[in-house]
Amino acid sequence: IRDRSPSRGLGDVYKRQTYTVQAGDSLYLIAEYFLPSDKDLAMYVDEIAQLNEISDITQIQVGQVLKIPAQ
Fold first, then answer.
1. Which of 26, 40, 49, 58 could be bridged to 54 by S-S, CB 3.0 to 4.6 A?
2. Contact 31, 48 (CB under 8 A)
């Protein structure tokens, strides 16, 4: 995660943030960055994956825009 400032998009209506995947990112790294203090990392990764309809968490693509759950 190079640019740690999340972008805003249509998800703002629902108070969600978005993040654009960059080279070297993994879903775990992204989840760790946005992880709320009251959440478990593995469960938060699953939550992001479900929100974005990702069935294989190792298959995210550079440029993919991920919705991040409201904190």
1. 49
2. yes
